[in-house]
Every structure is written in structure tokens, then in C-alpha cells.
Design a protein that fits this description.
CATH superfamily of one domain: FAD/NAD(P)-binding domain
Number of strands: 18
Structural class: alpha+beta
Oligomer: single chain
Largest sheet: 10 strands, mixed
CATH topology of one domain: FAD/NAD(P)-binding domain
Distance between the termini: 56 Å
Radius of gyration: 23 Å
Number of helices: 12
Length: 492
Amino acid sequence: MADIERDLVVLGGGITGLAVARLAARAGWPVTVIERDDLASGASGATSHMLHGGLRYLEHGRFSLVREALAERVTVSRMAPALTRPARFLVPLRRGDRVGPLRLRAAFMLYDVLGGVAGRAGSGGPSRHVMADVRQALALEPGLEPAGLRGAGIYGDVVMDDARLAVAVARDAAAHGAEILTRSELVAARPEPAGGRLALEARRRDTGETVTLRARLVVNATGAWADRTRAAVLGMLRPGRSDPPRLLRPTRGIHLIYPALTRGHALLTLAGDGRVLFVVPFAGRSLVGTTEVEVASPPTDAQRRPSPEEIRYLAQEVSRILPAAAESHPLAVFAGIRPLLAAEGGVGQASREHRVVEDGPLLTLVGGKYTTFRVMARDLAARAAALLGRTSAPRDEAPAPLPAPLPDEVADETLAQHAVEHEWARGLEDVLRRRGTRWLASDRGLAAARRMAPVLARALGWDAAREREELERYETAVKDELLLLDRTLAAR
């Protein structure tokens, strides 16, 4: 694509930017994605691993958002059957809870109606809700704390592999002509003297090489860094102008990974402070989340890391509803930054809607939730089509299946080779953390890393020193994470 004028240059290789690139490429628009690190290395690889409407959003009256997300839950599940699966979520009912049986049943009924599953069972997708008494709830999940238990409600949603789903979207975009540049960053942008085009320069962070691009529009899909990216790009295009007002109010959410804590059900319950707590079965483990701590826009490096207070909070809360968790040690912890729209009020009530902001040839896409990535891409593409003078915008009404990942059972060496050749992996963490589930093995993928390192070295031209450095970097990251967990939870 060296000599091709791009309709779009998309900044950001998370699910949103990749979805925009996929939709544009499928419409025949020349498009390039520029990602500073690895695909899905930000919030798109640090979610609660759910495709869902957001049962809790009903309480705030966001019915349109829930309906839209539930429709997308169905569509994305069909697009990526290897990366999604229906799950039954059990909601314990306890004496003194803010939400009682009648209110919960009403919420379930509305969720089923909005999701199109009312009166339908056995269809292979999320099932309609049912209510269970105490005996039934404990038979389904004996690990529940029995004290104060009044019963439970059970409803259907979908569990997914967030990072690998984003990579599958990238593969589909590339199959239709999109150019994907990882480990790259935009370093210069200026309007050309005539024609309304932009001259852009990107630098490859791993080699220092400079890539020159011509584009009609730039899309800012950099998530929690969107405010900084918007100010930087506008500063290049309009030197001397003051920075625009901030669009975001980001929050950090962390998750703990435990050995399996349930018999296969996901759990949704209220923590002691009223926050929603999830226990989600994923890859034979239990993912426990989440927290919500406001951070700066853009977040600092320190704010991207989980805090001891958040770790203790989640460990205490999951032990309150599943007492056996107190005797189990988390295997892993990770944090992500949500790019929420700026709004008044508490961060827990912040909107999950999205917004497209136009600054001349720069379109910034902010807010939203993972489940609705196709909707966000469609809305951005509609605005881009108008600016490009197109008579219609791409819609993706009948989406084709996404490229399937290799199964987890393949040899470590095979996965590593495939990740480099077909999925833009450029380091051990890329493969272990975002191209499979080796990072959830009992040894956190350390044995796999030693088998993968020589494969990556040959494929990427590393010398022996670079291979050792890459292996040591992954091993150090795992040890630091485990040390944080050990020190934080030692006094439990």
C-alpha cells in the first residue's frame, strides 16, 4: 500500500479501531491501522470477558443501550463461535439485599424481552431466566455462602475471549485489504497545500523506520488515550491552537484470576458496598471483577497497574459469597482503563454510550463498550462517508464469520509460528497473553515461553541476546505480578 492514498488512517489497534478498519476495508476503502504497541494491549485485552447487554444498566433506565448490546451479543457470537460461548449467570438473593426477588424477576423479564429470548429455550444461545429456591441454588453451586441465602435468579449471557476476538477482527480487516502496523506511532501530520489531503508520517518503534502515508481522514480510536491523541494530532494540523476540552473520564478496573470457584456457572452479585461483582468462568479458571477507580486522562503508567487496595477488596468480596475462595490464592491479576465519556456524578453511573467528535479531517471515537464495537464502527463510518462524499456508508448487515484462531491444544511452537505469520505478534507476551490462554496455566506460561522463544527468534530475526532478553522480560513480569499478589494477600 506504499503508494495508495488512504481514505482512513486509524490510530489505535483495540477492538474499536480494528472494527472501523474492518468495516472500511470490506467496503473497499483503503485503510491503515497504526497501533503503538500490540493489538488489544489496552482495555480490549483486559475486560470482564463478557458479551452482554449489561443487566445493571436497566436500573439506570438505559434500555436502548441494553437492547442494542443484546442484539450485538447475538451477532458477534455467530461471527466468532470459537471465541464465544453461552453461559448461565446465577444471581444469589440474600436477606437485606437492595434488590429483592420481585425486582430481580422484573429485571430478568425485561432483559429477556430486550434480548429476544423470552419464551425461547434450547436454541443454543443464551437461555431465558428461571428462579431457584435455596435448595436448588445450593444444588447448582454448593460453594455459595448459605447464611442469609433466599434463593437465586438465573439468566443467560455470553463469555468471550476479548484479545483473540480483537485479533480475529484484525485478520478479517487485513483479508479485505486493510494494512495493520503494530509497534508504530504517528509522529507527523500536516495538510497538503491542495486537494484536502493529509501527509502523515509514522515511525516503527521496533526498527526506527519511517513510513509516509497520504490520507483523507484520520480516525482517533485510542481509547483512554483519546484526549491526548486528539490534542497531539490537532496540534500538528493546527499549530498554535490551544488544546481542545477533554472528552473522557477514564476509570481503572482490575480482575483477579482464581482456580475454578464454581461448577461452571457465572455469578453476578452485589458487593458489600453495593457494587456489582462478577465471577466469570473462563478457560477453566474463574475471573473475578471488577473495580472502578477514576484515573487521569491520559492515565499515567502507575495508574494502569492494579493497586493493593483493589486486590484486597476483590479477594475479600469473593470470599464473602464463595467462602472457599478464602483458601484459594489468585493465579493472576490484570487491570484495564475504561475510556468513559466525561459526565457529572459518580463514576459508577458513568454512561457506556459512545460519541463521534469531528475536528475537520480528524474523527475521534470515544466511550462505548466492547460488546457494541460494530455499532461504534458503523456510526464512525457513516460520518466518514459523509466527509468523503460517499453516497452511502458501509453497514455490515449480514456479517460473515471471522477467521477462527488456532485451538488451544496445538503445540506451543505451532501457536508461536502462527501468531507471528498471521496475527502480528512480535514478542512473547503478545503470543502468551493475547493469542491464546497459556498465561492462565498453573506456571503462567513460563514453560511455554521457553519453547516459543526460539520460534520467535527464528521468525523475527532475533539474535541470542534478544531472545534471552525477551524471555527474561516475560519471566520478570510474571514474577512481579505474583509477588504483588503474595505481598498484598499475605495478611488476609
